[in-house]
Amino acid sequence: xxxxxxxxxxxxxxxxxxxxxxxxxxxxxxxxxxxxxxxxxxxxxxxxxxxxxxxxxxxxxxxxxxxxxxxxxxxxxxxxxxxxxxxxxxxxxxxxxxxxxxxxxxxxxxxxxxxxxxxxxxxxxxxxxxxxxxxxxxxxxxxxxxxxxxxxxxxxxxxxxxxxxxxxxxxxxxxxxxxxxxxxxxxxxxxxxxxxxxxxxxxxxxxxxxxxxxxxxxxxxxxxxxxxxxxxxxxxxxxxxxxxxxxxxxxxxxxxxxxxxxxxxxxxxxxxxxxxxxxxxxxxxxxxxxxxxxxxxxxxxxxxx
Length: 305
Known about the structure:
single chain, 305 residues, mainly beta, five-stranded antiparallel β-sheet, 1 helix, globular
């Protein structure tokens, strides 16, 4: 049969300069989702969590320290029928929607990063630690404690004439998820890398890029004795390629067009391979000195097993 999902989101975000080189940011999202399947419809409406971030830069902006807080303001304890089905649908790896989850537990993150110039390259490196607190995701389910995350990243950028290149790679490591204090799942380490090239021509700016995500095998544990039940790759590796052209118009307006493909390899669990194509156009500019407008349309097609 056919399944149809619709989503509408409203986001609130802000930036507050506290003093020189010290700033605060906040972000809050709410969303409405409607899922139609087997002749029935179900929906979910609610807030996500409020996220706060304090950042301080040092040494002429070459060093950055930040601390974030996740306040559990979002919708939790979803019903196990329609609302859970929507969350599971949003988590499908071949979908791209702005809001994929609602409320979680109290959490915080710490980040440190630095930047320097090495010959023709502008280089940066950083580390982020995310602590995720426990919460009740669904009605009648115990306290779920998602694993914490440690992410390491490195970036480099260089320019040559009208060409500019940027690249980065990152590693993410995860601790074990627990339910009512018992280990149930451990996500495998993940490696990702991106490379982008930009050409500034006379009337058109061209950009092209590629991204790769490599994933390991996850572990599932038995609630009865804590033994490992399985070690399988839940999601397949991914490979993306895109090409974009931007056309400057009058009075600071810009018109853009993009085409891309996303290839997701077969997992070792229930998900087969996916082959996706996307085409997009966008228009952006300033209506007044204090008001901007961005419009975009993206069309997705392809197949997913």
